[in-house]
Give the backbone structure.
Amino acid sequence: MKRWKLTYELTDRFDAPVTDHFYSLRCFPRTGYYQQVFRCAYSVTPCFADSRSRDSFGNELLTGCCPVVENSFHVYVEAEVSAAGLPEPELRTYVQLGMYRYATAYTQAGPELEAFALAVPAPVRTPWRRTAVLMDALYHTFSYKSGSTAFHTTAQEAFAQRRGVCQDYAHILLALLRSERITARYAAGAVPGEGASHAWVEVWQDGHWKGFDPTNNCEVDENYILFAAGRDAHDCCLNTGIFRGDAGQKQSVLFEMICMDN
């Protein structure tokens, strides 16, 4: 188990004032059986009122509205978290987790991905072993290319061009798994050294969720901090917002993880 100091900083800059800036934030580490949050403080500027709750997937959610934003909207989160990277117990049953076995708009397999899955042999087809085999095949077929896709790129579209980012790796692996009715969900969080959010997949087996990172072709360990989980990236947006106004917008996001055990 490792203990981390984690900071998340979001800045939206506007070239003119905007009004009615509504925001939804899931940029908070998620407490679990093997991931413990010891401290989590945040600030939102300008902040007039906000409300903390949990969404339907159990992710911590902060919502609010800024009546006027003159030139910038700023979010800062600082937390201390310990992580073990072990399979996380799940109280819900196979039947209750049915929503994680069916494709979404972003994770529809289509003929090309279905054919790819069929071509990948798997002598032992337990969910976790099957995931490891599919993940390895994807890793050696797909290439990481920053800027080659957008948030709304689907698994089929990314796979057709054989390149994308961590979100695309996760969506494609989910599409492959769900084409075989394996229970799997999207995970968003942080890993050290990237400076940005990261995405991976969690697969359910025998009452536990186990993490797999298709971008790096590895199992999730104590270097991963989970923020949000859901059916796909749309359920796990760490920050979303809308506003009134005709202003130009530029956003910057920074993650930093420092191991406190050193």
About this structure: The first helix runs from residue 110 to 118. The first strand starts at residue 2 and ends at 14. The mean pLDDT is 95. The chain has four helices and 16 strands.
